[in-house]
Prior knowledge:
Layout: E1 4-8, H1 12-24, E2 28-32, H2 35-45, E3 49-53, H3 61-70, E4 79-83, H4 88-97, E5 101-104, H5 109-128
Parallel strand pairs: 1-2, 1-3, 3-4, 4-5
Amino acid sequence: MGKRILVIDDEPDLVHLVSIFLGAAGFEVIGADNGREGIEKIEQVSPDLVICDMVMPNMDGIETVKAIRANPRTRSLPVIMLSARGQTEDVNRALTAGANDYIIKPFRGAEIVEMVKRYLSQEQLTEICP
């Protein structure tokens, strides 16, 4: 299997949909229902990239991104925020918290696959040419 992607979203149908798109592109997808579960799964499965919803129970996307950035082992893990909240202030909050990028729902499958590939190819370039 290819690179491992963790999708953190409280909507199981959305996790399934993203899994279909990314799975067809050769990625292994793991789902988590909320930020707390997502942080635990990061420790368990060491994903190569995280896609995270902004609004979730228990621990929202902003708190999740901050927790990822606060941990020295996950500080450089690429995080893409995926949210129906498309206001400039929401996007800025996510990017300021540490998200690498932001996709607004509804989205196209090709958009997610392309963005994931772009971040993972940048990661590979950094490993080759630090």
